[in-house]
Amino acid sequence: xxxxxxxxxxxxxxxxxxxxxxxxxxxxxxxxxxxxxxxxxxxxxxxxxxxxxxxxxxxxxxxxxxxxxxxxxxxxxxxxxxxxxxxxxxxxxxxxxxxxxxxxxxxxxxxxxxxxxxxxxxxxxxxxxxxxxxxxxxxxxxxxxxxxxxxxxxxxxxxxxxxxxxxxxxxxxxxxxxxxxxxxxxxxxxxxxxxxxxxxxxxxxxxxxxxxxxxxxxxxxxxxxxxxxxxxxxxxxxxxxxxxxxxxxxxxxxxxxxxxxxxxxxxxxxxxxxx
Length: 275
What we know:
By secondary structure, this protein is of the alpha/beta class. The chain has helices at 9-23, 28-34, 39-46, 54-64, 74-83, 95-101, 120-130, 137-146, 164-168, 174-188, 238-253, 258-272, and strands at residues 104-109, 157-163, 193-198, 212-216, 223-227, 232-235.
């Protein structure tokens, strides 16, 4: 596994694309238009966050002058020889960057509310409990910092499917939980945030094996993040990501509609979490 400070094969390829583009005096936007993708996707390539598809890479080579002589096909060879043989979990520990580049995020949680929607009190309770009273202040600050992507100029759309149990699980006491549920309602009023609750009586609950998030990129392949009690894994395998997308769609089909979910959350806040 590549360490955080080492240059991974994906990053190396991205730097080569950027270096060649700048040597030609071509802007990122011009390159994007020439190969029929978005400027944000080219930026993700150059930062090593997204891996160019072979067809896109061939088009990039043609625009940047890699089409003749010894340089012909060099970027494609880097992709094939270095990246395809690399350890697949290069992004471990870099999910925050992935979130920042995504255009849409589909999150499912069965036990704990999504980090992007947690209040400071709720996050503090969850992280302190998971660290067995160890110092979790840095992770709390990081989690709250991550939430700023929902406030940026062009924020991603977040669709959060939340199992009813997450609204009932006591994380920090009644005051914390009431503030958290009211915060969910406030977040759900935003145009880029959709929150839907899956009722406990739904039969799809039998399929809840753990939380996951699927990130979609403008013009790029989906990437997923699967969390567990030990670590989190970034998933890029197309078949595995497609399976998670299918699970998400099945769960969503049994979820309450957005307005019904807001009303349900408010009712639970009054019934369960009023001191």
